[in-house]
Design goal:
The chain is α+β, with helices and mostly antiparallel strands and 118 residues long. The chain folds into two domains: 1-42, no CATH class; 43-118, no CATH class. Helices cover 29% and strands 31% of the residues. It is built from three helices and four strands. The protein has helices spanning 2-10, 21-41, 114-117; strands spanning 50-60, 76-80, 83-95, 100-107. The chain is globular and about 55 Å long. The protein starts with a helix and ends with a helix.
Length: 118
């Protein structure tokens, strides 16, 4: 992309070990299990009161949906408080002390109440 070319051309001395995009995707796949394991270790114990909320994880602007290929077939159109988006939803359950109890990522078109049953 334009930004990658710009960084490589003018700011290379600030980023001497800059990876290519495809290499970065491969490394992300390798680190995802470790990241999930760490997140599970950070979960807290239920205290009897839980709060549930979700937020959108937009993967591209709405005008670019037809050209988007990275999450094609996985990301969906959804509607949040800020309007329509294309991507995923991050659902969190927290206790009254702010401790994380559960996390789930779903497609953008999933109803906010559905992951509660899981």
């Amino acid at each position: 992309t334009y930004y990658t070319k710009f960084v490589c051309q003018y700011w290379r001395h600030y980023f001497p070990d800059l990876l290519s995009y495809t290499r970065m995707l491969k490394l992300l796949q390798a680190t995802l299990p470790a990241l999930c394991s760490y997140l599970k270790q950070r979960f807290d114990k239920p205290t009897g009161i839980a709060f549930i909320d979700s937020t959108s994880l937009k993967v591209c602007h709405n005008m670019r949906i037809p050209r988007h290929q990275v999450f094609a077939g996985k990301a969906k159109r959804g509607k949040g408080t800020m309007g329509w988006f294309y991507g995923f939803k991050l659902h969190l359950i927290m206790n009254d002390e702010g401790g994380l109890l559960a996390v789930k990522v779903t497609a953008g078109n999933v109803d906010d109440r559905q992951p509660v049953l899981d």
